[in-house]
Amino acid sequence: MKVYNSIDEFKDVNNPVVTTGTFDGVHLGHQKIISRLRDVAMNEEGETVLLTFFPHPRMVLFPEDNELKLLSNQSEKIELLDKYGVDHLIIHPFTKEFSRLTSVEFVRNVLANKLKTKKLVIGYNHHFGRNREGSFEHLKEYGPLYGFDVEEIPAQDIEHVEISSTKIRNALQTGDVSTATKYLGHHYTLSGTVVGGKKLGKTIGYPTANISVEDKFKLIPADGVYAVNVKHNNKLYGGMLNIGNNPTVEGKGRSVEVNIFDFDKDIYGDEATIYFIKRLRTEAKFANLEELKNQLAKDKESALRITTN
Q: Does the N-terminal or the C-terminal CB of the chain have fewer CB atoms within 10 Å?
């Protein structure tokens, strides 16, 4: 997959079959669009082109909205789109100036003149252009005028619930990683640098790696204990992870700490990626360290069953 940092970097390709959107999380609905994009490109003897934006448009248009959290950072999104078979990925800077393009200007200047779109494939209820004025109806009208066809993918449902990035965010914010996995079509991930902690876990037989998540917009799931997989140096390990304030030892501030099974290495400063498998329980305050240790033994037993299946 070729990655471009703006529309201006994109070079002409053979019969571009294009889609556009934020693609946050690259969930099952997004995957359906990409799959159709690939099928159309094969039929047209063309190449797939995905146009997305950074920062997320809501961050530019509504900077006062500090509640927005994203399902994927840039590197995660790139990795997922590559995995699902996109040929060309354009990550265009989203600015207020760009947001002022009318729907006609977006079709003419971007889709037709810059990308030279052969066919456009979009998701259900897709809007674009200034004030989101553009719609499928606009595209059906404008597309033929500028030399490309348009296809809309119908709503993708799972058990009659429409998939959306918002619904996945809501599931993660309640700790329901199983539902998030079902909608995403892959495990939710969290990446960061291993940093030093209090090392209290080591004193009770459960040493943890503290994960510092540097992207402030990345969504961290609800507090609790989770069965997870951990990727370090391209190797995958089972583990159990705690998100929260460590009330038993009067922790200060929210932390993300993972106990990696069958692992005994100094990895301070290294990158690690967490794959959320299942939430085991809510975070709890225990009367003493011995009670905490007994509960961690039960958590580990549960996590081992889940991560080794």
A: C
Q: Give the 3-state secondary structure of residue 260.
A: strand
Task: Return the closest-CA partner of residue 211 out of 226, 250, 109, 203.
Answer: 226
pLDDT tens digits for 179-236? Answer: 999 999 999 999 999 987 766 666 677 888 899 998 889 999 999 999 999 999 999 9
Give the global pTM.
0.88
H or E element, residue 304? helix 289-307
CA atoms within 13 Å, Cβ hemisphere of 33: 29
Task: Give the single-character DSSP code of 8.
Answer: G
Among 73, 60, 45, 57, smallest CA distance to 21 is for 57
Interior/surface letters 81-95, b for 16+ CB within 10 angstroms, e for the rest? beebebbbbbbbebe
Q: Which two tokens stand for residue 107?
A: 């079709």
User: Which has the closest alpha carbon to 215: 79, 94, 69?
Assistant: 69
| Sign of the CA dihedral running 204, 248, 212, 165 | positive
Q: How many Å apart are CA 144 and CA 86, to the nearest integer?
A: 25
- Please report which helix (H) or strand (E) contains residue 179, including its range: helix 177-184
